[in-house]
Structures are given as structure tokens and as C-alpha cells.
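Run log // design_07
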């Protein structure tokens, strides 16, 4: 590797100019490369950057430098690469931590909330990904160097435990190193406010601004921080308190349930297994092929450890058939999302079905409200929280029990956490996102797969005692409230061209929305960015929607719709499809088959729309 003192700066910059002239590198990427070659505060990265230029590694340079990695729904997430402003590396992680420290300290000073005789606290945790421990130590060094007391979870821990730790230790902020369910090539930094939730306005935009302004980064060596008491290991204390907090959501009942659980090579065994054991579920098998913590996720399809992908359950379903399991659970690598599978009937040879995030949300909402009714605590002040793209079946269940549903929220569990703080945790029942994220209880302000797994197991055990399964319970909800099916289409749009394509797509949807989708007329368009709603041919009118870059197209059949938004964490556009029908004489199964065909037709039309056809 070239060292800092022996590369020819003028010659390297000339090669850079020649690459732009030859069309090998975009001017925007070249400008960022030049900055990394010449800025004094980036000197430690200049040799590696120069080596890339001298070797003509233009594709790598374009990918790593064409933009500055954005701060998405909850943090900065992207591909690991040792250099570049559009990659996760020591510099971009360091900028995130330093910018957070700068903003928090300024906010505490302005608000008068700074602790009188002690430093502000910051909780830090990390998952099993490549370089996660290294980045967690780096963030600890930066926060300590800026005068924070760091509460360090020393070992692979879950994102919800980090959210809990922020609250438990009364910290001013928190940092989690994880890329959630992204591919092995990625990592990320998530940042948290004193509430234990991810940053909400105005803190999100203001802290991002501070991150973008960072030049020099203050650091205190990790060992020095430990010896001075500014970095303190706290995992044993926080583990015990977190487990106890989750267990407060447990209720007595049947425990005769054989469970297979997979952490998908992530941190989940540190959270889910102790909780289930303490709650009395003794027959839990940690699925061997997925048990090893590994950043490469070797034994899951395509090395993508995402419980939203039904294929991750295939080998577990085979195992379940051999041992007679009743329920399969899987959590994503940072254990904030829960997936599950159950048999369609109690018969030992019955087929298995994986449940979507929307279906789990409906089951949990109904069970929790049933529990309130049984315990005599059901009252109108109770509330559910969901996002705009989470199933409306959840609202219908809430209506049936006479409780509120707060559903005017953009994607991002931070909005659910914020709503809990706004309405008060005393009446909170369930927060849910279609992307398999759930929260029960007030111990955290982020989604928590451990508490969701606990409550799902208690529901499954209760149903088993009645001779029923989760699938049968779901069909019963459909029969009572209408059959709801949802699907999602993700269209990848990487790079600078992809960003342009995404902007063009969203503009087309706003200016010339399609007239029909899957043969159904588009009867109403809602633009959450401009806060306008209109019917085709009519004048747009303002409406009070959760502001965000999303367009919803409502179709002529009530409850059928499409929502479109660019992802906040990945280079892709997400299309959310919704189908809804009353039960027919042929039963729920017939309606679901018809809806599957309708959703497939929606997807076919949306693919054409995404391609500009």
C-alpha cells in the first residue's frame, strides 16, 4: 500500500482529470476523490485513494465517491469499502459519531438540560457484521473524546437492547453498529436520541447537518477511556434488566409448545433464548445451521439473512417435520424483526405456511386486545400504532375492540416510537410495521423481536391448547373483518443514474399517474410530499398526511391500493400493494386465491410503470 509521504500528488491529480475527460469517472465522483486526496483532515485516507487512481480502478472509485452516503430512515447504511464518502468505513462512521456528539452537546447547552456534575451518556452496541466491533470501539473513542460517558455493550447484542440501554442508563444518545438485514457486504450506524428512539425532526436534519460539517474528529484511545472511567462495560447489568423488562409483557398460560428458533447468524440468541426460557418455554431448539454468529450468513439463501424472505424457512420447515415442531421463529441479524411459520392445521403432516409482517401484526393486535378484555383492562383510551403501508386489518381489529389506531405515519419505526411518547406509554398496546417490526411494552422505542417472539409463542401455545394454529386464527380474523392480502415489489435503482431514475419515476406518478392498475381505475392520488390529494381530472386539494416522499394510488375497489416510495436505506423503489375483499360464499381460501392473481396483475403493471413504459 502506498504510504502518505511517497505518492506524487500532481501526477495523481492529472490522472484524475484524464479519467474524467475520457468518461471513466463522473465529474461529481472526481470532485470527491480530489477532496480525499488533498484535504488535511483526510490525510490518512489519501494514500489508499491515490493508489486506486494510479491503478486505474475507476469503477471502484465511481461507486465509492459518486455521492455522500445519505442518512436514511435511521442512520447511514451502505457497502463496506476502506475509502470513499459513499461507503461505510472508518471515516464515514467517524463523521457520524462526531456529528452526533457535536449536535447533542450543543442541544444540551442550548436547552439547559446538560447534567450538572456528570458527563452526558451514550450507549453503544454492535452486531455480528464485518468490522462491527471495530466501528463500535471507534464510536466509543469519539464519544469519550468529546466528553461523553460511554456505556458499552461488550458482545453481540440486539438493536432493541441498545434502545433499552439508552433509556435504562438515562443517556443523551445511543449508537448501534448494524446493517440489519442487508447483504454481508454492508454495514451501518444507527443513532438514537435520549428517548431510546431513532432521531425525529428537528434532531434528525440538524444532526445530519453537523455530520456533514465534520472535519477533524476528536478521539480518546479505547484503553485510556476505560482506565479513566469514560468507557464502561455494562452488558451483564443491561442484559438482566432488558430480559426482565421484556418479561413484563408475559402472561400465565399454556407452555406446551415445541419451537424452532433461528437467529439467522445474528445476535438474536442473546435476546430471544433467555426470554423464552424465563417465560417457561422449555422446548426451544436453537436451529443449528443458523446458530453461529457470522457476518457472511453462510447457511441462508443468497447469504441474505432476512425473515421477510420465505425461503429462509425452508430448511427449518424440513427440520420441524422431523421433530414435530409447532412453531418456527426467525429474527434478522440485529434481532429487531421477527418472522414465523406455522402449520395450517394441527395435523402432524399438515403443510406449513410462513406469515407476513402484516399477518403477524393482525394476530398480535387481536391477541393483545383479547388479553385486555379478558383481564378487564380494555378501554377506549388504548391505542395501536402502525405506518401508512401496514395492513388496514390492524385498524379494523382495533375498531372492533373500541380502541384507537394511529396510522398516519411514514415508514420508519422512529415515528411509532415518537407517537408512543406523544400519546403516552400507559395506553400503548402494539406498534407494528409491515416489514416484520413490532413493539409491545414501553421498555424500548424501537421494534423488538424478543418481545414479539414471547407474545407470539404465548398466543401459539394458547391456540394449540384449543386444537388450533396461528394460520387458522388468521383465517378467522379474515372471516370476521374481511380478507386482506398485501405484497411488495422492490425495484433496484443503484448509482447516480438510479437516483435520477427514482426521481423521474416519482415525478411521473405525481404528474401523470396511471389511469388503471390490474384493470381497476385509479380513483384517488395522495402525494405525501406535496400534501395534496386529487381524483383524476379534478383540482388537487391539501390534506393532512404524514409528510414524506410517497405517492398512494387508491383503486376503484375499496381497500385496494398501491403506495410507492424510494427506500430510506437502500438504492431501490418500493411498491406496496394492497388487496381487500369481504369473505365470499366460497370461503377465505377462494378469496385469497383471487387476491393472489390480482396482486400478480398489479405487480406486472407496476414493473412497466417502473421501467417508464
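design_07 sequence
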Amino acid at each position: 500500500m502506498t504510504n502518505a509521504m511517497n505518492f506524487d500528488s500532481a501526477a495523481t491529480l492529472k490522472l484524475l482529470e484524464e479519467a474524467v475527460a475520457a468518461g471513466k469517472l463522473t465529474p461529481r465522483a472526481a470532485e470527491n476523490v480530489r477532496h480525499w486526496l488533498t484535504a488535511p483532515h483526510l490525510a490518512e485516507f489519501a494514500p489508499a485513494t491515490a493508489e486506486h487512481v494510479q491503478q486505474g480502478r475507476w469503477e471502484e472509485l465511481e461507486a465509492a465517491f459518486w455521492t455522500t452516503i445519505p442518512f436514511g430512515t435511521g442512520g447511514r447504511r451502505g457497502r463496506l469499502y476502506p475509502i470513499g464518502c459513499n461507503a461505510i468505513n472508518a471515516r464515514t462512521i467517524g463523521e457520524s459519531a462526531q456529528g452526533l456528539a457535536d449536535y447533542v452537546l450543543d442541544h444540551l447547552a442550548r436547552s439547559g438540560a446538560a447534567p450538572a456534575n456528570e458527563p452526558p451518556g451514550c450507549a453503544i452496541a454492535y452486531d455480528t457484521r464485518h468490522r462491527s466491533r471495530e466501528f463500535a470501539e471507534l464510536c466509543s473513542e469519539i464519544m469519550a473524546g468529546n466528553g461523553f460517558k460511554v456505556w458499552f455493550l461488550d458482545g453481540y447484542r440486539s438493536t432493541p437492547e441498545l434502545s433499552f440501554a439508552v433509556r435504562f442508563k438515562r443517556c443523551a444518545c445511543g449508537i448501534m453498529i448494524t446493517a440489519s438485514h442487508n447483504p454481508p457486504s454492508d454495514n451501518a450506524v444507527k443513532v438514537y436520541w435520549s428517548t431510546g428512539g431513532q432521531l425525529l425532526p428537528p434532531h434528525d436534519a440538524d444532526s445530519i447537518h453537523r455530520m456533514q460539517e465534520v472535519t477533524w474528529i476528536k478521539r480518546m484511545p479505547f484503553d485510556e477511556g476505560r482506565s479513566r472511567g469514560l468507557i464502561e462495560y455494562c452488558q451483564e447489568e443491561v442484559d438482566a434488566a432488558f430480559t426482565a423488562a421484556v418479561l413484563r409483557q408475559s402472561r400465565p398460560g399454556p407452555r406446551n409448545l415445541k419451537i424452532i428458533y433461528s437467529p439467522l447468524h445474528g445476535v438474536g440468541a442473546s435476546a430471544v433464548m433467555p426470554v423464552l426460557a424465563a417465560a417457561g418455554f422449555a422446548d426451544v431448539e436453537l436451529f443449528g445451521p443458523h446458530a453461529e454468529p457470522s457476518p457472511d450468513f453462510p447457511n441462508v439463501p443468497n447469504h441474505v439473512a432476512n425473515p421477510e424472505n420465505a425461503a429462509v424457512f425452508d430448511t427449518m420447515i424440513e427440520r420441524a417435520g422431523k421433530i414435530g415442531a409447532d412453531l418456527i421463529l426467525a429474527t434478522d441479524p440485529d434481532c429487531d424483526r421477527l418472522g414465523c411459520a406455522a402449520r395450517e392445521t394441527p395435523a402432524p403432516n399438515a403443510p406449513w405456511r410462513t406469515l407476513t409482517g402484516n399477518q403477524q401484526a393482525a394476530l398480535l393486535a387481536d391477541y393483545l386486545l383479547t388479553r385486555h378484555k379478558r383481564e378487564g383492562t380494555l378501554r377506549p383510551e388504548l391505542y395501536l400504532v402502525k405506518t401508512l403501508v401496514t395492513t388496514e386489518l390492524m385498524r379494523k381489529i382495533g375498531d372492533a375492540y373500541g380502541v384507537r389506531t394511529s396510522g398516519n405515519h411514514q415508514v420508519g419505526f422512529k415515528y411509532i416510537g415518537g407517537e408512543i411518547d406523544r400519546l403516552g406509554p400507559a395506553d400503548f398496546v402494539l406498534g407494528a410495521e409491515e416489514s416484520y417490526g413490532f413493539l409491545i411494552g414501553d421498555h424500548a422505542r424501537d421494534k423488538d423481536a424478543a418481545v414479539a417472539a414471547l407474545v407470539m409463542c404465548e398466543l401459539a401455545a394458547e391456540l394449540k391448547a384449543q386444537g388450533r394454529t396461528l394460520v387458522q386464527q388468521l383465517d378467522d380474523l379474515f372471516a370476521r373483518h374481511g380478507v386482506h392480502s398485501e405484497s411488495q415489489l422492490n425495484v433496484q435503482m443503484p448509482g447516480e443514474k438510479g437516483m435520477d431514475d427514482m426521481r423521474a419515476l416519482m415525478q411521473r406518478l405525481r404528474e401523470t399517474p396511471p389511469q388503471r392498475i390490474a384493470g381497476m381505475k385509479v380513483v384517488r392520488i395522495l402525494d405525501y410530499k406535496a400534501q395534496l390529494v386529487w381524483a383524476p381530472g379534478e383540482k388537487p386539494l391539501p390534506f393532512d398526511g404524514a409528510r414524506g416522499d410517497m405517492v398512494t394510488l387508491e383503486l376503484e375497489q375499496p381497500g385496494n391500493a398501491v403506495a410507492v416510495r424510494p427506500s430510506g436505506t437502500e438504492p431501490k423503489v418500493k411498491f406496496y400493494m394492497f388487496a381487500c375483499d369481504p369473505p365470499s360464499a366460497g370461503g377465505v381460501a377462494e378469496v385469497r386465491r383471487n387476491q393472489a392473481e390480482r396482486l400478480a396483475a398489479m405487480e406486472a403493471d407496476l414493473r412497466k410503470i417502473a421501467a417508464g413504459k
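The chain is about 40% helix and 20% strand.
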